[in-house]
Amino acid sequence: MSTxxxxxxxxxxxxxxxxxxxxxxxxxxxxxxxxxxAEARIKGITFGGQPLELSxxxxxxxxxxxxxxxxxxxxxxxxxxxxxxxxxxxTKAERLxxxxxxxxxxxxxxAPLHNPAHLIGIDxxxxxxxxxxxxxxxxTAFHQTMPAHAYRYAVPKFxxxxxxxxxxxxxxxxxxxxxxxxxxxxxHMEKGGWLSAHLGNGSSTCAIWNGQSVDTSMGLTPLExxxxxxxxxxxxxxxxxxxxxxxGWGIEKIDKMLNSESGxxxxxxxxxxxxxxxxxxxxGNEDATLAIEVFCYRLAKSLAxxxxxxxxxxxxxxxxxxxxxxxxxxxxxMSYLPHFAFELSKEKNNELKRGTEGRIDGGTxxxxxxxxxxxxGRIAQxxxxxxxxxxxxxSTAAVAAV
Length: 402
Ligand code: AMP
Hints:
Blueprint: E1 5-10, E2 15-20, E3 28-33, E4 41-45, E5 51-55, H1 61-72, E6 79-84, E7 94-95, H2 98-106, H3 115-128, E8 134-138, H4 148-151, H5 157-161, H6 172-186, E9 193-199, E10 203-209, E11 212-216, H7 239-247, H8 251-260, H9 263-268, H10 274-282, H11 286-306, E12 315-319, H12 320-325, H13 327-335, H14 346-351, E13 358-359, E14 367-370, H15 375-401
Parallel strand pairs: 1-6, 6-8, 9-12, 12-14
Antiparallel strand pairs: 1-2, 2-3, 3-4, 4-5, 7-8, 9-10, 10-11, 13-14
Helix pairs in contact: 1-3, 6-15, 10-11, 11-13
The chain binds adenosine monophosphate.
């Protein structure tokens, strides 16, 4: 296998990993889950596409990483790339140094569920592999190009200047990957305006002008924006005082309700899974039908809204589990966007095979693409860029010293 990068995404009780090399077919990937419990295990795909299932009872993050890395050491990864959700004001991928780790820790209040888990993984891999270059790639970094009028909230200025309250945006690696890929696929459109809809269990939209994010639907946290699997997306912030005053709810209960019990699950009272909702709707379940309708309408509204950040709309990209797989959701969403001259080809939309990329517009208006996202591939690519840059700097310094 050619030079490879090990990509790690640590959650509170799970670790996703992927060994990314030049050929996508060679990718080795998996998930260590239920960490810390008797059911801890690794499930994945090994070289050549063979399935792997390994029980690692009571393994913690370090033990699980050690197991994964021992199995992969024969492939000699060139570096490790860590997905980190919140990079605060960091604008690009960075080599992990004590200073960068401190900055990830400092951003913890902004991503209390994610950053502590990433730090556990970083700590473990730094101890296990002190000689391998390690890089943090941030979900927020791509959106650091947003102008102030897109990232500031209309709240007192000191909350921004003293407490970093602003819109950050997430899913940056996905929006960056698919928009870059769309430019490659569409040719001659290096400069231009793209709208990107990442629709999975977590969902967001992004407006990209000449390769840079100019607006996005998520904000201070990944709760803002469009309807998601269990997250509400935008609500009137007064819902907090309404629920506190009328139902006696505390902040934690409200937070949990908005993050874990709302969205498609909350609206349908059935499921956060779009497939289940489409099936239920076909069988006449009205709550499922409404959940789908709200999802598509609010998505279209968000795309129309962030299009204000673009001088021109040249194309739209659907990605994520729902965006890549559901022709029905794509068509319904486009039906709420009649005023942008988009012309969806129903035929191409319906014929697009799952998991493949393809263009689904009729050829007259802005392009419409379905592009399977590849966050691991993008993280590996950014990691390589950082490592190559550092190597080049080292050689220049060595030559200067001679
Ligand atoms: P992700 O978080 O990107 O893995 O996406 C998960 C979401 O994709 C879930 O809501 C799934 O129901 C949805 N999904 C996957 N396949 C399909 C499909 N064929 N039709 C509709 N939704 C799908």
